[in-house]
Amino acid sequence: MKKWFQSFLAVTLFSASLLSGCSQEESSKTADGRTEIVLSGWGGNPTETKLLQQTIRDFEKKNPDIKVKHDVIADQYMDVLKTRLIGGTAADVFYLDAFEAPGLMEAGVLEPLDKYVKEDFDMEDFEKPLLQAFQHNGKTYGFPKDYSTLALFYNKEMLEEAGVEVPKTWNELQEAAKKLTKDGVYGFGVMPELARLYFLAESKGGQVMTNNKASFASKEVSEGLQSILDMRLNDKSAAQPNEVGADSGIEMFGQGKAAMVLEGNWAIPYLADTFPDISYGTAEVPTIGKKNTMAFTVAYVMNKESKHKEAAWRLIEYLTGKEGMKTWTSKGYALPTRKSVAKELGFADDPLRGALVAGASYATVWQDGPYLPIAQTNFNNQFLSAFLGQQPLREALKKAQKQANKEILINE
Asked: 48 in a domain, yes or no?
């Protein structure tokens, strides 16, 4: 990764030097004299797209000297973004997933935002773990626009029929899953991947990554993950979606093939649209000694090479400010990262979203240094075989860790 950083920066600086003689200010002015800035992100569903477009229009009304060009990168977002950054053609402002943030923060291609922030922006209003995901070496490189945690989704009718209470601890979940497994229905639907199981992997004191090296082959990580294998291989109370003909955990749940799953906010509109008759509830993820869950978040960040940094900051400030965030998250497709907005919109007390919002203050963000993407790929490849009973868990993790660290060494 460091080798990539060095070549990345060299090419970026060279490109910038070639462009220094060009009139970037003039080339990005509209016919009516407004400053045009570009906002890049991936696409969303039609409702989300309309909400973002409305938020941008509201910003332009309040900032009549700025025109925002919304650029949608439909496929291979990070590959396209990195190519544009290297080529000097990246947008002024763009989405950045927390998972990918460490690499770009270390690369030095993002503009630190602290100097732009004024007191009335109220940084304390952001959920702390979500904001920290975009901070590095004492600097803030992005402000989170939305997020989702994981919560326990449970089928009310199945639990009531089986006489099972909503589990509050992981041991209770395991026992409940056994009672709920019958007639082709599994008690627990599992996505056997690191993004969903990361908090469980570290629940016994182990670390997935240590000093930017994979360290998940430890005894502690194996102990943290063992319960998932026990549920599938011993209790026969857990399965992954493709074992019942589903493509995802929430589809498995919606089809009535799993009584409980761990899913995020995205599942709520999906169930309303696809399985409107299912009776379900949500609860915070059952505790394993302490409360924990996963959080997935995305920030708006500024291109360090932007020629319109003041205008770019004004856009970020509005989009992640209270007014802009309220518009963007108003329909519940995304959860607001500001506590005040979540409260104002009623999400904190919502019977379905409340558990997701509650988890934001203590969640583990899906992020762990610049080499987690490498570690994830190798972990998932080997963990699945252990989940299916094809090899012992510890052996699978040792293989995955060895290969991951070999690839990390090459990229350092």
From this structure: yes
